[in-house]
Amino acid sequence: QVQLVESGGGLVQAGGSLRLSCAASGGRTFSYYAMGWFRQAPGKEREYVAAVSWSGGATDYADSVKGRFTVSRDNAKNTVHLQMNSLKPEDTAVYYCAASDRGWGKVDYDYWGQGTQVTVSS
């Protein structure tokens, strides 16, 4: 079973940037899994943010982050990243990385990290 550990969260002012990373270990070879990012703000349901296909050749984004966030992966280093630019207070949430062995994009993800807090101050 693959284990996922996120890092890179923190406090940033509106308009700033953060880069989240997710390191995978265990399970099958990393390229077997499609990867996604989700977030959950206080009092809200978890929502889809972005996804990247197995090779990294295809990406998908929620409308709320399109043009500001960029998802990428490095299969040689078993990592996936989420570059977040032009951050807004409404981006404040716990961000989770997830892995799927059933498809990519807006699918059910089987494996989840513990999350990393992102707080954007106005």
Strand tally: 11
Give unreliable regions as ranges: none
- DSSP strand content: over 45%
Mean pLDDT rating: 97
Verbal overview:
By secondary structure, the protein is an all-beta fold. Helices cover 0% and strands 50% of the residues. It has strands at residues 3-7, 10-13, 18-25, 34-40, 47-52, 59-61, 69-74, 79-84, 93-100, 111-112, 116-121. 32% of the residues are buried.
List keywords for this structure.
single chain; 122 residues; mainly beta; seven-stranded mixed beta sheet; four-stranded antiparallel beta sheet; 11 strands
Topology overview:
Layout (H helix, E strand, L loop, with lengths): L2 E5 L2 E4 L4 E8 L8 E7 L6 E6 L6 E3 L7 E6 L4 E6 L8 E8 L10 E2 L3 E6 L1
Short structural summary:
This protein has no helices and eleven strands.
